[in-house]
Design a protein that fits this description.
CATH class: Alpha Beta
Largest sheet: 5 strands, antiparallel
Distance between the termini: 26 Å
Order of helices and strands: HHEEEHEEH
Strand content: 15-25%
CATH superfamily: HIT-like
Length: 141
Amino acid sequence: MAEKDPNCGYCVGGEPLAKFGIKICDLKVSQLILFKEQTKPGRCIVAYKDHVSEMVDISEEEMHLFMDDVVHAARAIHKAFKPDKVNYGAYGDTGCHLHMHLCPKYKDGDEWGGIFQMNPQKTFLTDAEYEEMIKKIKEAL
């Protein structure tokens, strides 16, 4: 098992994760996280189980399982929130933990036809609203 980074929210959860997300559940080789900034309803992150930086740092089998997790999460987002499109973003210049953003886009929403903003700081929800979103996603998984 790979080492965990004590400063990485994906590795340690708790307060570092709570700054930007809420863990929904574990998948095959990843965890599914609800992104707290919800300008795009249903936005989530699929984070690999170990602290590696790149897809090239894992075996081909693990890479396929990671992508299976991404697709599984995307299907749940489509079922639960009915977006017109889901954009996928694999970043990590500073965090260096393999993860993918799943960003639902809606034709009647902002940024349709453009690249999503990483963290527009526009829409944060109540705890009850986050719980309801998580329930919808879990039901759709």
